[in-house]
Amino acid sequence: MATVFDLDGLRQKIRTLEVETRQENFWKNAEHAQKILTQLEHLKKNSESLGQLETEIDNFVEVEEISRNDKKIEKELASQLESAERKITELEFQLLFQSEYDSRSAILSVHSGTGGVDAQDWAQMLLRMYLRFAEKKDWKSKILSETRGQEAGIKSSTVEIKGAYVYGHLKAEAGIHRLVRLSPFNANNLRQTSFALVEVLPEIETVSEIKIEPNDLRVDTFRSGGAGGQSVNKTSSAVRLTHIPTGLVAASQSERSQAQNKEQAMKILQAKLLMREIEEREQEKQTLKGQHASVQWGSQIRSYVLHPYKLVKDHRTKVESKNPEEILNGNLEPFIEAYLKKLCAVKK
Predict the structure, then answer these.
(1) Ordered DSSP codes for 65-93
(2) With 90 as the cut, is the pLDDT of residue 36 above it?
(3) In the chain, at which end, N or C, are there fewer CB atoms within 10 A of the end residue's CB?
(4) Please, what are the domains in the chain?
(5) Which pTM value belongs to this model?
(6) Beta carbons of 223 and 251 less than 8 angstroms apart
(7) pLDDT at residue 299, rounded to an integer
């Protein structure tokens, strides 16, 4: 088991990060320092869990050898074995986070697609699903920008979600999500199919990761909409940045000052450019291997059917659930785990 989970390697990584925290200039960049401490806490938790699991299994084997045919002890051992198996499953899940950016926080955006008001309502349902999932994981969420529909729902929304391995989890959700239901916005209550696009970006940790030339940037300011108080809505504090060479756009309206919103929008834009770079590298690898690279943003990844039957199906992994309400309430673990396992299998 130690070979599978590499406890020695985990402890070495902890020691390396602890050395970094003791450096004289460690707190010079407070944001980076906080990320290192969060990662260190996560690794220590895994190390402690793995150490405890090793001890439990050693004790189990020892007791099992000296207490055979004792029914009372056999029953107790069976319970301990079940507990150990659950812990092994949890630790195995941690091994699925193998990519360079998996440990980072993330920026998640939801955009309504074809389907009119129903699609805007569907986008809001998805946003709620991810906010509930983040809440269950004890992650911190903050809406950075949002454009609401005139009648209902949202046209788009961008959320910053902070925590350990947020991007590693949520990257499984990037793509087009399809909803089939009886429309609550149609007088005849007809069946309606709606689409929404989910984008997930790893958070940029340092400015040097992605550099943007000032001449390549167009800056537009506008009045913030939605919640935020009168001072937010009365001034042109919201900022929209356009990267001219690529046409990529990022906006922020959550902060009260224009400077803060510009800084936040810049982080989003840098994350988009980083994702573009990652995708280009991945496509180049697939081309060299002679494999066809899938179109991540253009493929329908999951369908949510509420009528005439109830079913949520992931088209990449074939994982299904007959309880859409549970999934839409933020219980996404089975879909995320299946996707990560498939991703690891493909990389091997």
Answers:
(1) HH-TT-HHHHHHHHHHHHHHHHHHHHHHH
(2) no
(3) C
(4) 2-94 (1.20.58.410), 106-203+297-347 (3.30.70.1660), 208-289 (3.30.160.20)
(5) 0.74
(6) no
(7) 65
| Top-confidence range, 123-127, 231-235, 258-262 | 123-127
3-class secondary-structure state, position 268: helix
| Percentage of the chain lying above the pLDDT 70 cut | 83
Structure letter (DSSP) for residue 315: T
Distance CA 27, CA 22 (A): 10
Q: Which two tokens stand for residue 41?
A: 């806490």
Residue 238 to residue 220: CA distance in whole angstroms: 8
Mean pLDDT over each residue of the chain, to the nearest integer: 83
Other CB atoms within 10 Å distance of the CB of residue 16:
11
As to burial, measured by CB atoms within 10 angstroms (0-12 exposed, 13-18 middle, 19+ buried), residue 330 is middle
Please name the residue that has the structure tokens 């009528």.
307
Residue carrying structure tokens 């107790």:
76
| Contact indicator for 161, 170 with CB cutoff of 8 Å | yes
What pLDDT digit, counting tens, does each position of 116-167 carry?
Answer: 899 999 999 999 999 999 999 999 999 999 999 888 999 999 999 999 899 9
- Examine residue 245 and say whether the peptide bond preceding it is cis (omega within 30 degrees of 0): no
Token readout for 31 is 């944001």
Beta carbons within 10 angstroms of residue 90's beta carbon: 12
CA dihedral (67, 73, 77, 80) positive or negative: negative
Q: DSSP 3-state assignment of 41? A: helix
Tokens representing residue 13 in the block: 């990584």
Tokens in use for 272? 């988009």
Q: Give the residue among 132, 185, 141 at the shortest CA–CA distance from 163.
A: 141
Q: Strand, coil or helix: what is 60?
A: helix
- Cα dist. 116→113, 120, 127, 292 in Å? 8, 7, 17, 33
